[in-house]
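Quick one, probably user error.
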């Protein structure tokens, strides 16, 4: 159980460096975009619920 918690936390903290999920800050990038109907396999990084810090602070995508 401890190893699972560490693994989940590591994925979340890695994605938190890049951006945040608008549906809930506790979601990592994969979980945030999992249910999105607008995300395709080819463009899986273009998820409307996931915003990079640059998009949130400046309004410009990196």
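Nope, works fine. Designed sequence:
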């Amino acid at each position: 159980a401890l190893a699972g918690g560490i693994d989940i936390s590591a994925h979340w903290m890695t994605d938190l460096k890049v951006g945040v999920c608008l549906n809930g800050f506790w979601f990592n990038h994969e979980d945030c975009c999992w249910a999105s109907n607008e995300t395709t396999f080819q463009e899986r990084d273009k998820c409307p619920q996931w915003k990079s810090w640059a998009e949130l602070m400046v309004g410009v995508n990196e």
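The helical segments are 2-16, 29-33, 53-57.
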